[in-house]
């Protein structure tokens, strides 16, 4: 029997993997070819052909698949996905499986198709399709889907192990002309907002390079715009850096040197390298674009000095004028076309008060302060690449020593707002609870979402000093974080309260509840122990109970096997009660359903009411452009709350403690309670597609491709072209 060979990609053809698993056919992963790799099965080449060949060997095809309103593929639109899932939910109202009395061809095909569509995975998580959700959750515990998922996971894990790991101690970065003990680098945030994940690469790389070269790391607040900056943000930035364990050797402000910057500006005027200009702002932009000189470009040095003095004093006349560098208005690099470098700004500065009326622009202040602070290497995001030549012009023109520039790409994620102005809007409009909201990309936000300091550092350092500008999916960073939390997160159970089922247990040696110590983490005894209550009345989740057949043997986790000896259902199909008979000698390896449970609460052994919160992205557009109208792409629902009862011991958890509610996922204790007094736990994505998929309807839709047959399942989706109008 030949092997199935699949290229290792983020979302592989799960239908093919499942069909292979049903027949015991090995799957080999091609880890080298990526998206360009071929799917093969012996002499058969191509995903569609391989799937057709595999179908020939599977029994159960005589059971027809449910009729569908439209085609579902990996590229199906959100509307098509919703229609198909609704049809599947209706079909399962009185059925356990699609393929008949047990999991078979139809279930494998439908499961694989849903698994291959990110919109479908996200929609499955939403309430509203209870039958389909129950089926999907149950199917993912069965051998074939588990084998398919595990095969893909292991292949990705092995590939990662084979790569050169770029950790803090071993990033391959060589600074040009660097001398050990002499290197000075700086991180220069503007104190106009909280640190977000886009800033962290600069902070972490600067700290690393300072350590590597036994040099110094300066934290500099670039406070040249009093209109936008506040002392509150300075304190927050320092707290955030401390939170992620980034230390600095000293703190400075650009405002420490305003007098010196002003003197250097006067030097430029006296050298004939700067001039005063009262041209209106929009006209300046047009002239620079058209490479036209300002009418004031050739003012005398004396006139320029007079106007500069008036601007710095904030006189009515001076307010009209700004200082521009006199470089080359026809330069092919637009940043050198006589840029504005000093201007009047009204209002009070949070450090210097009203002492100054005019302030330097970043383009002038940065090279001057780098020189004054003794910076030897300036790490800059490559989005500023065009300004490198301008930076060097100021150094040379002012007679400063050369400073090496080292480029790196910024970290940018899909469905993420990084603009400080837009983030501030979301806070002010109460779209979020604050700058530390778990849906925010701020350091505080992702920390309260469950991102660990070590996970964050490992991910950023794993990116290294790459200069390739790409928009990243969130799966990578959460996968790295899971590797940090999985070995140490205590395990607890929580049972969803919605239609939970009372279970009577037969076969216990005593009628009284028993309290037994169990490990909090089966693979790590150092995590500690918990108390578990074993009783004759339990609670289980409705979605689990619905899947049980009469006399079926199941496994009650951490207890043992049991037979379902009685099951009562309501006219709507819900399970109203269960009776199970213990069979502790049974082999748990032979059962397909392994479920969590809790002893029914009593005065002596109460349970803790909790709310489990899943979050969606704040925006529904993958890449937010500068001119997008934010309210039009805001997600209307970004929180999904599930009421549950949890083990009593979760009461002792404190803010930011990370645990796992088994069979549900990892959660972080928010340290808060809702208006019902329930402890709030936030779901932590673990990198799997279902945990990072957008749940809402995307802002952009792909065009439908005509000529596709209705009712097709799992066929490779055609390549599509986005035809959505730009969001205004």
UniProtKB/TrEMBL annotation:
It is an enzyme of class 6 (ligase). It catalyses: tRNA(Glu) + L-glutamate + ATP = L-glutamyl-tRNA(Glu) + AMP + diphosphate. InterPro entries: aa-tRNA-synth_I_CS, Gln/Glu-tRNA_Ligase, Glu-tRNA-synth_arc/euk, Glu/Gln-tRNA-synth, Glu/Gln-tRNA-synth_Ib_cat-dom, Glu/Gln-tRNA-synth_Ib_codon-bd, Glutathione-S-Trfase_C-like, Glutathione-S-Trfase_C_sf. Residues 1-159 form the GST C-terminal domain. The keyword Nucleotide-binding applies. One of its GO terms (biological process) is glutamyl-tRNA aminoacylation. It holds the Pfam family tRNA-synt_1c_C. PROSITE patterns: AA_TRNA_LIGASE_I, GST_CTER. GO terms for cellular component: cytosol; methionyl glutamyl tRNA synthetase complex. Keywords: Aminoacyl-tRNA synthetase, ATP-binding, Cytoplasm, Ligase, Nucleotide-binding, Protein biosynthesis. GO terms for molecular function: ATP binding; glutamate-tRNA ligase activity. Residues 698-728 are annotated as: Disordered. It is found in: Cytoplasm. The keyword ATP-binding applies. Its EC number is 6.1.1.17. NCBIfam families: gltX_arch. PANTHER family: GLUTAMATE--TRNA LIGASE, GLUTAMINE-TRNA LIGASE. Belongs to the class-I aminoacyl-tRNA synthetase family. Glutamate--tRNA ligase type 2 subfamily. This is glutamate--tRNA ligase. It comes from Cryptococcus neoformans Tu259-1.
């Amino acid at each position: 029997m030949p092997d199935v060979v699949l290229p290792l990609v983020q979302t592989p053809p799960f239908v093919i993997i499942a069909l292979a698993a049903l027949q015991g056919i090995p799957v080999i992963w091609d880890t080298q070819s990526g998206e360009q790799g071929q799917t093969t099965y012996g002499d058969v080449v191509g995903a569609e052909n391989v799937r057709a060949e595999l179908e020939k060997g599977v029994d159960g095809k005589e059971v027809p698949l449910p009729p569908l309103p439209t085609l579902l593929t990996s590229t199906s639109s959100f509307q098509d996905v919703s229609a198909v899932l609704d049809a599947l939910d209706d079909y399962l109202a009185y059925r356990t499986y699609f393929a008949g009395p047990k999991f078979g061809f139809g279930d494998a095909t439908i499961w694989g198709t849903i698994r291959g569509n990110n919109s479908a995975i996200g929609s499955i998580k939403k309430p509203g399709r209870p039958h389909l959700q129950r089926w999907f959750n149950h199917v993912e515990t069965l051998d074939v889907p588990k084998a398919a998922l595990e095969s893909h996971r292991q292949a990705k894990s092995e590939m990662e192990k084979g790569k050169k790991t770029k950790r803090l101690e071993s990033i391959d970065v060589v600074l040009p002309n660097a001398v050990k003990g002499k290197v000075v680098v700086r991180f220069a945030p503007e104190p106009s907002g909280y640190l977000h994940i886009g800033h962290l690469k600069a902070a972490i790389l600067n700290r690393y390079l300072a350590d590597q070269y036994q040099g110094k790391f300066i934290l500099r607040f670039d406070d040249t715009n009093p209109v936008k900056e506040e002392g509150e943000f300075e304190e927050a930035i320092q707290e955030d850096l401390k939170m992620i364990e980034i230390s600095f050797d000293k703190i400075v402000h650009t405002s420490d040197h305003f007098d010196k910057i002003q003197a250097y500006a006067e030097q430029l005027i006296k050298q004939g390298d700067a001039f005063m200009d009262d041209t209106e702002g929009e006209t300046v932009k047009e002239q620079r674009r058209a490479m036209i000189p300002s009418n004031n470009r050739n003012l005398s040095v004396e006139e320029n000095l007079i106007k500069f003095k008036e601007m710095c004093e904030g006189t009515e006349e001076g307010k009209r004028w700004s200082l521009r560098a006199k470089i080359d208005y026809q330069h092919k690099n637009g940043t050198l076309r006589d840029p504005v470098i000093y201007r009047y700004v009204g209002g009070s500065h949070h450090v210097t008060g009203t002492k100054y009326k005019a302030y330097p622009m970043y383009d002038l202040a940065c090279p001057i302060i780098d020189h004054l602070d003794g910076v030897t290497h300036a790490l800059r995001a490559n989005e500023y690449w065009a300004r490198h030549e301008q930076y060097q012009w100021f150094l040379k023109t002012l007679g400063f020593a050369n400073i090496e520039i080292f480029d790196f790409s910024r970290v940018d994620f899909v469905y993420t707002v990084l603009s400080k102005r837009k983030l501030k809007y979301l806070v002010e409009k109460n779209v979020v609870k604050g700058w530390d909201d778990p849906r925010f990309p701020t350091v505080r936000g992702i920390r309260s979402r469950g991102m660990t300091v070590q996970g964050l550092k490992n991910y950023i350092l794993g990116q290294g000093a790459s200069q390739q500008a790409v928009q990243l999916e969130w799966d990578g960073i959460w996968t790295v974080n899971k590797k940090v939390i999985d070995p140490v997160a205590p395990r607890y159970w929580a049972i969803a309260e919605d239609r939970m089922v009372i279970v009577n247990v037969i076969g216990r040696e005593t009628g009284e509840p028993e309290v037994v110590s169990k490990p909090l983490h089966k693979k790590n005894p150092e995590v500690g122990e918990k108390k578990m209550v074993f009783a004759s009345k339990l609670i289980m989740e409705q979605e689990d109970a619905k899947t049980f057949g009469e006399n079926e043997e199941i496994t009650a986790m951490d207890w043992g096997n049991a037979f379902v000896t009685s099951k009562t259902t309501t006219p709507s199909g819900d399970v109203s009660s269960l009776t199970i008979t213990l069979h502790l000698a049974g082999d748990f390896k032979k059962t397909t359903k392994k479920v969590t449970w809790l002893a029914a609460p009593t005065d002596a052994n109460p349970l803790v009411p909790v709310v489990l919160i899943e979050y969606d992205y704040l925006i529904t557009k993958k890449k937010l452009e500068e001119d997008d109208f934010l309210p039009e792409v805001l997600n209307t629902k970004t929180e999904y709350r599930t009421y549950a009862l949890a083990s009593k011991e979760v009461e002792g958890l404190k803010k930011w403690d990370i645990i796992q509610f088994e069979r549900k996922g990892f959660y972080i204790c928010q340290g808060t309670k809702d208006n019902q007094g329930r402890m709030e736990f936030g779901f932590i994505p673990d990198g799997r597609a279902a945990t990072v998929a957008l749940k809402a309807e995307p802002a952009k839709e792909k065009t439908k491709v005509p000529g596709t047959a209705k009712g097709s399942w799992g066929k490779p989706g055609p390549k599509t072209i986005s035809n959505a109008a730009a969001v205004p």
